[in-house]
Amino acid sequence: MIVYANISIKLGDIADISAGFPLRGSLESLPKGDAYFVSAKDLNGDYEISWHSVAKVSLPTKRQPRLLKNGNILFFARGSNTHAFSVNNPPEKAVCGPQFFVITITDTNKILPEFITWQINQKPSQNYLKNHSYGSAMKNISRSTLESLQIFLPDIEEQQTIVNFWKAAQKERKLMTRLIDNREKQLLAFAQKISNQNMDK
Fold first, then answer.
1. How far lies 145's CA from each of 16, 21, 72, in Å?
2. Measured on CA atoms in the order 157, 81, 85, 75, is the torsion positive or negative?
3. Could you tell me what percent of the chain has a pLDDT over 90?
4. 0.85 exceeded by the pTM?
5. Taking a C-beta distance cutoff of 8 angstroms, is the pair 92, 18 a contact?
6. Side-chain half-sphere of 169: how many Cα atoms within 13 Å?
7. Architecture of domain 10-153 in this structure
8. What distances in angstroms separate CA 75 from CA 40, 79, 87, 103, 178, one per listed residue?
9. How do the domains of the chain map onto residue ranges?
10. Which residue in 169, 59, 153, 170 sits closest to 113, CA to CA?
């Protein structure tokens, strides 16, 4: 029995890692249906899924797909955006594309999925993934590389503290972004007003 507290361990030893839905062809070619199909466009800057933008399609298979569930982590394995994204409160029927790996933490009583999401997205993990990617035109991360990623696990109380700080930072960034957007709108209004006054002269 492993005691998950202040140890370094491979991601593959604490999680099941599976491929996304094996879609053949483009997402756009699928008819509309009742299944949410997560693609790269649905990922946001808070490392979560923007469910309102996810396409609803009919899945082209008679086999029961492996559906996303709360607490899953999506890892985008292609291109430069090799980051992890938390799956929070997904719809009843949702899958992701083949460019993702689905990470399922095996013991969520001792390991917080959001803590793993946070750690994968930090610089040490990102450097490892970048150094072990393959491909020339488009970089890819293999499942074995992801499974071999070293994860440091403090006790669950410290994991929760880090997750709380991370969420607070996300809220602060959203607030600052809104403040900046509002200020830019005010400045644009001033510029428009000055321009109109000059035209009236």
1. 14, 20, 19
2. negative
3. 53
4. no
5. no
6. 10
7. Alpha-Beta Complex (3.90)
8. 11, 12, 11, 7, 28
9. 10-153, 155-201
10. 153
